[in-house]
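Task 17 of the worksheet. Students: predict the tertiary structure of the chain below and write it out as structure tokens. Keep your answer in the requested format; marks are given for formatting as well as content.
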Amino acid sequence: MVTFEQLNLPISLQKAIDDLGFTTPTPIQSKAFPIVMSGRDVMGIAQTGTGKTFAYLLPILKQWRFVPTDIPRVLILVPTRELVVKVHEEIEKLTKYMSERSLAFYGGVIIKTQKKDIYSGIDIVVGTPGRVIDLIDRRALKLNQASMVVLDEADEMLDMGFREYIESILEEIPNERQTVLFSATMSKPIMALTNRYLTNPKLVKVVKNEITNVNIEQLYYDVKGRAKMEVTTRLIDFYSLKLVLIFCNQKKR
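Model answer:
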């Protein structure tokens, strides 16, 4: 396992990583970094939480020197607004001492504002398939000079019904591009997408026993729906929890 310093990253990028307190790449980062750097298409199998975002962001930021125009060089597609925000925040952290400009596109934001941002200059686009298609259809976003596309959590995008959007977007990008696809599973739809749009991809896979989380205890309580709120608050009180992350399946919840 190498350290980030051994990757010979630009000083500005290494300084940003140092600020984040990271010293050693995760397994998926160590495996994917040299392959993405080589320019080959990549099919990565890795679960959420393995550090796959840095696995493709670090090679992008190391090897490319961007010149902001209204046509981005890199497109990163993700399934949800929340993931768009997360990836965009990671880019901003890594480019803290760099001049690269990235924009996040997702629904719920006035599209005229996003069109104006594009015309101000852009290097990297992070967006949901739906909003990217909207911007393409309005002739605000052009991808004819994009050299790289990343499909992050591709299985989630397919499960959410974005297949046609993804295919339409990929048709807008030159065939000479580099395509990087990350998925938690190697399902038939993922393989079909890979076979059609990736050229001789290199498989990068991280199995569960390579993911270090031995300090996490997992347990669950089987309760009726109406009791969830009471049980949750009692657990927080009983264990005197100060930092809690709660996942819900509805905005109302």
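Marker's comment: DSSP finds ten helices and seven strands in the chain. The longest strand covers residues 178-183.
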